[in-house]
Amino acid sequence: QVQLVESGGGLVQAGGSLRLSCVASGRTASTYAVGWFRQAPDKEREFVTAITWGGGVYYADSVKGRFTISRVNAKSTVYLQMNSLKPEDTAVYYCAAGDGIRVAPEHWGYWGQGTQVTVSS
């Protein structure tokens, strides 16, 4: 029912910024919560941030104050603004959609293919 496509990843120096985009399509896409997860090599996929269809937002402690999630419902697009990037932010970032916000990836039903973010020191 929902298709997700991420973009905006790339290589950036520590302290720099990137903005990721997640474009959702499908008949019921606007009714889903949308979240961002990331997965570094040899690590489990972890929750980063999420936003509800009504605009409620949630952040992992590791990104509070640095990352901002926003949603433009009319255009079915969710943004992840990443500032003050650190090398430990390096990971593949995934966009996900689900019926509600949960930390565990298993609770999210739809996933994009991911976009690589690399932060150099």
Compose a concise summary of this entry.
The chain has 121 residues and is an all-beta fold. It has strands at residues 3-7, 10-13, 18-25, 33-39, 46-51, 57-59, 67-72, 77-82, 91-98, 110-111, 115-120.
What does this protein structure show overall?
- The protein is an all-beta fold and 121 residues long.
- It has strands at 3-7, 10-13, 18-25, 33-39, 46-51, 57-59, 67-72, 77-82, 91-98, 110-111, 115-120.
- The chain is globular.
- It starts with a strand and ends with a strand.
- The mean pLDDT is 93.
Features:
121 residues; mainly beta; 4-stranded antiparallel β-sheet; globular
Order of helices and strands: EEEEEEEEEEE
**Count of helical segments?**
0
As a whole number of angstroms, the C-alpha radius of gyration is 13 Å
Main sheet specs: 7 strands, mixed
Beta-strand content estimate? over 45%
Structural class: mainly beta
Shape: globular
- Quote the average pLDDT: 93
Question: Tally of extended strands?
Answer: 11
Portion of residues in helices? under 10%
- Uncertain runs are none
First-residue to last-residue Cα separation: 40 Å
Write the layout of secondary structure elements.
Elements: E1 3-7, E2 10-13, E3 18-25, E4 33-39, E5 46-51, E6 57-59, E7 67-72, E8 77-82, E9 91-98, E10 110-111, E11 115-120
